[in-house]
Design a protein that fits this description.
- There is one protein chain.
- By secondary structure, the chain is mainly α.
- The chain is 78% helix and 3% strand.
- It has 15 helices and 4 strands.
- Strands 1-2 form a two-stranded antiparallel sheet.
- A hairpin with a 2-residue loop joins strand 1 and strand 2.
- Helix 2 packs antiparallel against helix 4, helix 4 runs antiparallel to helix 6 and helix 6 packs across helix 10.
- The longest helix has 48 residues.
- The protein is elongated and about 85 Å long.
- The mean pLDDT is 78.
Amino acid sequence: MVSLIISIVFAVFLIIGFLVGMSRGLKRTAVRGIWVAVSIILLLFLSTNITMSLLKLPIGNWIPLQVEGVSYVKLPEYITALLDSKLALDGVNYADTVNVILTLISMLINGVVFIVCYWVLKLITLILYWIFNIFIFAGERRKKKALKEEGKKLNKHRLLGGLLGSGLALATFFCTISPLVGYIQVAKSVESRSAENAGTETGILTEYGGDTYTQIVDGYDNSVAGKTFKALGLDKLMTSLLDLNSTVVVNKEKIKLSTEAINITDIYYQVKDFNIPNLNTCTQAELSNSLDKIDTMIDVVFKSKTVEVCTDVVVPIGVKFARKEVKTDGYKPYVRVFINSCFDELESYKSEKTKQEISN
């Protein structure tokens, strides 16, 4: 069903594009194509900034943002209040943490924002095209109407205009579906990596998404659009465009969604398979064995750029909260030493970027 719907929408795009291209003719369709190309280029460079600006709009006027009965208008203020409420730490400035959170949110939704902005910009450029068309092509329309003997030439140009119109429709469909297909490709990578980590034939998305995940992925792959884009080699370009739209900069480091999705999947399975020993009854040998596993887990965790670049901002707050919540008085001496050593190690840890800046 999903495959059929995508195929029908794809066909409608191409048919309408051909008919509109024929009605406009070759020259006017080419001019329209220039407008479309310019809008795509603009969005590729501006969509990330647009997303960050949208996240700082007063969305509390439309969506209720409340923490302990207090309403907030802007998302940064709401996140700050939420952190303060949940962590309850005195003298902590959450400004950097909030900025990191907003940046990571933008990484996840940039693709969707690109689609919406593309259609808004497409509508604006269409209006500008109509104005341009009225003044530039008015004389040419009168001339062609008077010169009936050029009918054959006009028909030939109309046909070329129709073909170009179909090409523009293909580009429009591509820009509309490209981020979504990019998300599908990321989902496939996560599914494959999670199956590899779990040693099973299917991965985490099949486990939790069930038929919904399979229907969406198979539906696109088996659709006429999916097969067409794959034959043209455009499926890889879609993933590249999503990477371009979903790459953000945090603490001067670039974070790419497709790469981070794999890293986070590896982290999930490392943490999932790690069993924390009972600190009340464990022996020093058991604790030592756990330390080896923790070292392995840390190596995997810090492959993630998200973890690496957030270390200087998030870890100090996390350690302060953990020190407040974790009471070590009732544990054996070597367990207390172990816990406090972990806190001290985390508190003193700096990202590789910060280490280089300090050494320089």
